[in-house]
Amino acid sequence: MRLQADWLTHPGTDAVFDALCDHNAWFVGGCVRNGLLGQPVDDIDIATDATPDQVIAAADAAGLRAVPTGLDHGTITVVAHNKPHEVTTLRADLETDGRHATVAFSTDIANDAARRDFTINALYATRNGEVLDPNGEGLTDLSARRVRFIGDPAQRIIEDYLRILRFFRFHAWYADPSNGLDAEALAACATHIDGLERLAKERITSELLKLLRSPDPAPAVAAMEQTGVLPALLPGAQSKLLTVLTGVEDCLAPDAIRRLAALGGSDTADHLRLSRTDAKRLALYGAEMGLTTKPGALGYWHGANAANDILALRAALFEQPMNPKDRDAAETGSAAEFPVRAADLPDLEGPTLGQRLKELEQRWIDSDFTLTKQALLR
Q: What pTM does this model have?
């Protein structure tokens, strides 16, 4: 099988392979998987039998910038034509503790493939696109749109407990939903839930948000709930509202925070490491989804995007489609500008002025932004 994609011959990528011409080098992982699926490729990963020191020396000799982003694990980021390439020496695991691995560098591509998580991630390609499948299962599983661990699922999970979340995330992004989730993998995830406690909140948050950005995360999240993974991460969270939400939000782009709000759960933000912006959005959605603030007011106070997210969550609560008129009202509200200023009330000052402006603004909002400045001042 041969991979065909524009990024194969990007000038920067050509320059990196030219620099490594005295060593063996292959494309590996996500770029090969997505390239075969015809999906976008953002990151270029390259595996090589060159040691990290040899990669740095080769890059320097070619006039390329080499950044030791993961030197202990054999990864050097080589920047060519302003494009970063993660170049990693072939490896074999010597020791794992459920979070980190101690590795030994290798020259055997089969060793490197055997230490990876899923069969569809253990695919390699030569510079000219010839695909290699050292484990002998990746191409078959990718063709069937099936996500399976390499070897024993329990052993793969014990090596790095984050693979529990990656299993559900990769199923959401790459599996055919009609296949269902691999039963042996689900059993291993359920058995080793306690290992999630050893993971940093940052890693858990990153994986969960990537999962929730998938086109339809609901089946994978429902499986997380059934195996106990979801309540272990977010106590009190349930998948039912998310399942309904994905059916009513088709007019909106996928959004992880909107979907996280649908999961609910007690103190969700405390169990994750969200950015300040995302934590504020989550709190707003959680507060507003059960209220009756009019769509226009939502748009005015929070902007059209946030208003539509809240409207989608409300629609899911009542298992109804989103109302196009509500969306239009939110757009109108987001563009509206309150016509009265403090200078228009020269006889008032201090708290009295502020209170009066607030009253007039609320009257204007209640009129669906139709009251003119003159009408308000009268």
A: 0.92
